[in-house]
Amino acid sequence: MPLRGKSRHRLNAVATLLSVVALSLPPTALAAAAGPPPDSPPAGIVSDAACHPLTGWDLACLRAHYSAPAAFWPAPAIDAGVRWNEWAPVPPVSLPPMQWTAANPGQAELAADVARPAIVALGQMLFFDARLSRKGQISCASCHQPQRAFTDGLPLAVGEDKLMGRRRSTPLYAAPFAPRLFWDGRAASLKEQVMGPIHDPREMNHDAAGAVARLRETDMYPARFLDAFGGATAVSPPATASASSTVAPASSAAGSTAPAPAPASASASASASASASAAMIPTAQAPAASTRASAIDADRLARALAAYVASLRPEKTRFDEFLAGRADALDDNELLGLHLFRTQARCMNCHNGPLLTDHQFHNIGLSFYGRRNQDLGRYEATRDPADLGRFRTPSLRNVAQAGPWMHNGLFPDLRGLLRMYNAGMGRDAPPADPPDPYAPRKSEHIKPLDLSPAEIDALLAFLKTL
After folding, report:
1. How far apart are CA 333 and CA 462, in angstroms?
2. Sequence-distant (≥ 6) Cβ neighbours of residue 165 within 8 angstroms
3. The whole model's pTM is what?
4. % of the chain beyond a pLDDT of 90
5. Residue 390: beta bridge partners?
6. Region Disordered: start and end of each range (predicted)?
7. 247-259: b or e for each residue (b if 16 or more CB lie within 10 Å)?
8. Which one, of 423, 442, 460, 306, lies nearest residue 366 by Cα?
9. 3-class SS letters over the chain
10. In sequence order, which residues have a C-beta less than 8 Å from that of residue 56 and are 6 or more positions away?
């Protein structure tokens, strides 16, 4: 029988007192009392109900709970079968990249490239250079602007000649940590992902060969590529060349610790070096790939761009200070929003871990199946009926700067988006007779939340701290 009136208030008071006593114990005593780490979500100090009596939220009670280490926070609402990770700081670039880059094809090469500042700096130059597009109208940064959390503020991406795409520009902060890239996961690696917009006719509308040829014609890029990667990889110098030749040797591995050859200070110096080397071997054997321009190729272009994207990190916020142990970094309303995010709002089922994303694909009911704006998401890349209407979970780091929101930019206002989640998001596929095998089915994680307007405001306040 549920407790009512004074009995419930008395129980809540006792539970709150127990939590305060627990917080006064030293960490070693708490750990001993807690026993071994559980396989399921931590139970928290006391139940959620202890901070939510009949009179409303007890914010002092919540603050007492969240002043403890994360292992003693109230348990998040996690559905059965969901693998989740507790919040944590975003791994800094200074850590060994193999510890934080996604274990997808090319991980070792990407990790080695991220650790070389010259490659990252080259990638940054390329990211902001409109010469990668066919008509020189847009760069990668046109759709991924730093001041907008590396999105563009538009509902749908706009490419060269003002052609509009079908989806919003993808946020980039989670890219180096994600097993698959793009909203539909069609790219298996970051190196593959960065070349996609260059080839897309609705984006940069170019091809790798054309972009490489254009970069080779510039004054700065040949030396920059040579400094970042060393000599050309396409053709190695013949064995008959003199050991004193100044032609740069090919770099055999991305992680080579050998110092890259210094870039020539002037084109005349490079020409003189090349001429001296060529004179020491038969003319027919002089490799064309020994020129500075030949240090540029499509693979290195992709590697440099991928290394730069992998180096991006969200701006530090008060949420990071809170994770670092400063419980007062969030005000009471923001702290209530944090608690709701983890519990009643059910957000932790998908938005967990350091980047607040599970890197998975979910159908939240926005595929517009059978309507004018239909987008079947990952299914369009896999043709697997299980993927109908599924889209990649975006990172919520710096989310307030990254609107409009969702894969189709449908929500220009975060409060409106939260209200939609509160209602259970998009409609389910209508019953069909006969059944439609292609009708997307909304994720079981999406349910009405029964949040009050004040609780939605608190949830919004918390999102603005991320």
Report:
1. 8
2. 156, 157, 158, 159, 200, 202, 203
3. 0.78
4. 70
5. 377
6. 425-444
7. bbebbeebeeeee
8. 442
9. CCCCHHHHHHHHHHHHHHHHHHHHCCHHHHHHHHCCCCCCCCCCCCCHHHHCCCCCCCHHHHHHHHCCCHHHCCCCCCCCCCCCCCCCCCCCCCCCHHHCCCCCCCHHHHHHHHCCHHHHHHHHHHHCCHHHCCCCCCCHHHHCEHHHCCECCCCCCECHHHCECCCCCCCCCCHHHCCCECCCCCECCHHHHHHHHHHCCCCCCCCHHHHHHHHHCCCCHHHHHHHHHCECCCCCCCCCCCCCCCCCCECCCCCCCCCCCCCCCCHHHHHHHHHHHHHCCCHHHCCHHHCCHHHCCHHHHHHHHHHHHHCCCCCCCHHHHHHCCCHHHCCHHHHHHHHHHHCCCCHHHCCCCCCCCCCCEECCCCCCCCCCCCCCECHHHHCCHHHCCEEECCCCCCHHHCCCECCCCCECCHHHHHHHHHCCCCCCCCCCCCCCCCCCCCCCCCCCCCCCHHHHHHHHHHHCCC
10. none
Overall residue count recorded for the chain in this entry:
466
Tokens of 77: 């609402």
Question: Is it the case that residue 276 has pLDDT exceeding 60?
Answer: no
Average pLDDT over residues 229-252: 43
CB neighbours of residue 23 within 10 Å: 15
Residue with tokens 């299914």: 379
427 vs 451: which has the higher pLDDT: 451
